[in-house]
């Protein structure tokens, strides 16, 4: 779908009230959903941390025990789930006669159900996985080394993984749009995640970050 422009046929209006119930009739079966999730992992896992697999799949199992109840009880996870499925459909469906991209129905439903984060309390990492927001990572200090005895090591590793995902996406998007970068490399002291037992994934992440740094220097020289 790269290089194509689609009309999603959506006016941008979200659901009218929190009581509006999400439409579960359009969701794929459990087995097909697993296939879509695995396709996202296959295409994105080396460079992007779009979801924490252990946490996400645990909630996936809980959701399929009581879909309607869980979607209402965990609205942010359900939005996240819809976005992952939308990505999966985009990867799996090779061609379509529709003027909308594969998975757009799931994407639009996710956007309509997106909560107002002004008052919505949730795990900051989970919020970033939905929004991929650089500002959230900076406000939480994820661009730093995050040294503190009060921080759980597993949480620190999640933050590092998420920060570098956001960093890569931000560098790529501002380059394509011809915009200045959101944070200079000199201001970043965050370490790479440990990723034990996954040396190839860690090396791929480092290579991609190096590429983004070079890309940023080229873009900055052109904007100067």
Automatic annotation (TrEMBL):
Residues 133-194 form the Xylanolytic transcriptional activator regulatory domain. Keywords: DNA-binding, Nucleus, Transcription, Transcription regulation. One of its GO terms (cellular component) is nucleus. It is found in: Nucleus. It comes from the Eukaryota. Pfam families: Fungal_trans (PF04082). One of its GO terms (molecular function) is sequence-specific DNA binding. GO terms for biological process: positive regulation of transcription by RNA polymerase II. Coiled coil: none annotated. The keyword DNA-binding applies. This is Xylanolytic transcriptional activator regulatory domain-containing protein. The lineage of its organism: Eukaryota, Fungi, Dikarya, Ascomycota, Pezizomycotina.
């Amino acid at each position: 779908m790269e290089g194509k422009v689609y009309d999603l046929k959506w006016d941008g209006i979200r659901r009218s009230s929190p009581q509006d119930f999400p439409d579960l009739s359009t969701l794929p079966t459990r087995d097909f959903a697993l296939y879509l999730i695995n396709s996202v992992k296959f295409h994105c896992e080396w460079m992007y941390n779009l979801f924490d697999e252990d946490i996400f799949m645990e909630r996936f199992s809980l959701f399929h025990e009581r879909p309607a109840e869980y979607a209402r009880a965990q609205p942010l996870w359900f939005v996240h789930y819809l976005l992952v499925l939308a990505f999966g459909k985009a990867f799996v469906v090779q061609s379509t006669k529709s003027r909308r991209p594969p998975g757009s129905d799931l994407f639009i439903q996710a956007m309509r159900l997106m909560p107002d984060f002004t008052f919505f309390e949730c795990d900051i990492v989970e919020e970033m996985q939905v929004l991929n927001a650089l500002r959230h990572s900076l406000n939480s200090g994820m661009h730093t080394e995050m040294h503190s005895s009060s921080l759980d090591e597993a949480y620190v590793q999640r933050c590092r993984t998420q920060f570098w995902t956001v960093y890569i996406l931000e560098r790529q998007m501002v380059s394509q749009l011809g915009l200045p970068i959101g944070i200079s490399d000199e201001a970043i002291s965050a370490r790479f995640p440990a990723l034990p037992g996954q040396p190839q994934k860690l090396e791929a992440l480092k290579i991609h970050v190096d590429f983004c740094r070079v890309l940023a220097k080229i873009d900055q020289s052109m904007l100067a």
